[in-house]
């Protein structure tokens, strides 16, 4: 029996001559959880695609040893058969199929007659749900009827059904609540006790610290170091990741806050599936020149729906009054919002922020393409100049502006979405979870950019589920709960406890 279940030695992977990985080593023992850390674009996902044979043997240099034997997998089916299973950040479930059908997709149990043995599959799926502390889940119901936290655990059930000996978790908690995250971390601990090895990719270093035994850090495609978690602090991990100390994670800078520039009054959004229910219930607020107004609230508080209504993109029945510079403003579509100077960086960049197969540069200019049109033709030179300026300004890591944006890391995709909105020269910029799935170095860059924008007079409305982030950068914080506004606090000594008390409907005392 080998000491290590997995050994990746000197892995090199290049794209068009550019090395995305340059000599990476990774080792994992049975029952060990290794945290794979690095900034967006460092090569973490590329390394896992090499391991899981998305990039098959022959497409890369180096060697992979699995349970003491060299592994030369030509496809994902081979690595899954060996016991290496990856759970991607974007869940790979079929919403309208049942829990059981998703768990057994591609690995169905059949009867002697060749028909699907649903009874056996339902039994096994129910056993897996119980093992993952979800015995209440009805495995015959469609996956779409369960929330994001349940779906994440269903993905793990699917992996365990494939007899996973090594589980790769790519940002597993990015869409989970705090309670769901705690359950998932407990499940990882249980899997470790049963001898299942894990590689966990996460930008939430407190979670890495909670469950990982060993930390491997890569930066710009190179192996920076591997050390036991017990020998490291979170600050030391950050220094290894970014190559410098970030002594102040939230770079607040003095900036002047002017008069009220934007008002939203009586924002009301009805649930799409149940119009009798209000997702946002008569919310009103104002926003000033050069102000960062944070919006806090628990899941289901209606923050995203409010942002979509303001931007003209909420698909359900809704009503609101908007005023810009004291004048009534009517917004019936995102195009009208952008033309008025109201821009939105959406919560779900994959669905609402990018066109995956389109080039990075063309994604950036998509919202202002008319600016480069002359007599019905695009001035390609002017468009390319704007693209290159934005890529440089936001430090977007891409081999080429023509590269399909889906090939970029999540953080660099987010920067491209930001670039797209900045080209529209916003007066009011709405940021919905702007740093979700973004590493600590890229977060710092986004915060610095926000500070630069408010110094120019841009008004920012930032929705975030991370209270330290809201308190770290906001001038004022709105708190919403169950669709209603429950607090409006100046961020001067404001505490997380005060914000949470307001969010759950308790009487909040001044901080």
TrEMBL record:
An annotated Gene Ontology molecular function: ATP hydrolysis activity
Keywords: ATP-binding, Cell inner membrane, Cell membrane, Membrane, Nucleotide-binding, Repeat, Sugar transport, Translocase, Transport
Record-level GO cellular component terms: plasma membrane
Entry keyword annotation includes RNA-binding: no
Membrane topology, from the record: Peripheral membrane protein
Nucleotide-binding keyword on record: yes
Top-level taxon: Bacteria
Compartments (UniProt record): Cell membrane
Residue ranges of domain ABC transporter in the record: 6-245, 262-507
Matches recorded under NCBIfam families: PRK13549.1 (NF010069), xylG (TIGR02633)
Protein name, per record: D-xylose ABC transporter ATP-binding protein
Taxonomic lineage of the native organism: Bacteria, Pseudomonadati, Pseudomonadota, Betaproteobacteria, Rhodocyclales
């Amino acid at each position: 029996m080998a000491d290590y279940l997995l050994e990746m030695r000197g892995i090199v992977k290049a794209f068009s001559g550019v090395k995305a990985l340059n000599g990476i080593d990774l080792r994992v023992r049975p029952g060990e959880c290794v945290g794979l850390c690095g900034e967006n674009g460092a090569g973490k996902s590329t390394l896992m695609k090499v391991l899981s044979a998305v990039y098959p043997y022959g497409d890369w240099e180096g060697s992979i040893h699995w349970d003491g034997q060299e592994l030369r997998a030509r496809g994902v089916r081979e690595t899954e058969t060996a016991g290496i299973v990856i759970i991607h950040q974007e869940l790979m479930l079929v919403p309208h199929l049942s829990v059981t059908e998703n768990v057994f997709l591609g690995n169905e149990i059949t009867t002697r007659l060749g028909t699907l043995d649903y009874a056996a599959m339902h039994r096994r799926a129910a056993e897996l749900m119980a093992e993952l502390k979800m015995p209440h889940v009805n495995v015959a119901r469609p996956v779409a009827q369960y929330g994001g936290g349940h779906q994440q655990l269903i993905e793990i059930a699917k992996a365990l059904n494939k007899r996973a000996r090594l589980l790769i978790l790519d940002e597993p908690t990015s869409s989970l609540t705090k309670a769901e995250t705690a359950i998932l971390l407990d499940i990882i601990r249980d899997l470790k006790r049963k001898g299942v090895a894990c590689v966990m990719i996460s930008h939430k270093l407190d979670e890495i610290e909670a469950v990982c035994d060993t930390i491997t850090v890569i930066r710009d495609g190179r192996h920076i170091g591997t050390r036991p978690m017990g020998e490291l602090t979170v600050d030391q991990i950050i220094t290894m990741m970014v190559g410098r100390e970030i002594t102040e994670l939230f770079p607040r800078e003095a900036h002047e806050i002017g008069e009220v520039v934007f008002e939203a009054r009586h924002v009301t959004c009805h649930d799409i599936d149940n119009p009798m229910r209000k997702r946002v219930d008569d919310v009103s607020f104002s926003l000033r020149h050069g102000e960062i107004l944070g919006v806090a609230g628990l899941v289901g508080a209606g923050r995203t729906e409010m942002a979509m209504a303001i931007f003209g993109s909420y698909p359900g029945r809704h009503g609101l009054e908007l005023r810009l510079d004291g004048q009534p403003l009517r917004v019936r579509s995102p195009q009208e919002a952008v033309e008025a100077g109201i821009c939105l960086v959406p919560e779900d960049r994959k669905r609402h922020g990018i066109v995956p197969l389109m080039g990075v540069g063309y994604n950036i200019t998509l919202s202002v393409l008319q600016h480069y049109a002359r007599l019905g033709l695009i001035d390609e030179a002017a468009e390319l100049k704007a693209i290159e300026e934005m890529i440089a300004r936001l430090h977007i890591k891409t081999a080429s502006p023509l590269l399909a944006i889906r090939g970029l890391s999540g953080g660099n995709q987010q920067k491209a979405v930001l670039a797209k909105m900045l080209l529209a020269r916003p007066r009011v910029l709405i940021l919905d979870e702007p740093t979700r799935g973004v590493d600590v170095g890229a977060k710092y860059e986004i915060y610095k950019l926000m500070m630069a924008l408010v110094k120019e007079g841009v008004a920012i409305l930032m929705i975030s589920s991370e209270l330290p982030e809201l308190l770290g950068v906001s001038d004022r914080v709105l708190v919403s709960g169950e669709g209603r506004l429950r607090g409006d606090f100046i961020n001067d000594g404001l505490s997380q406890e005060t914000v949470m008390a307001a969010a759950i409907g308790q009487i909040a005392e001044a901080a």
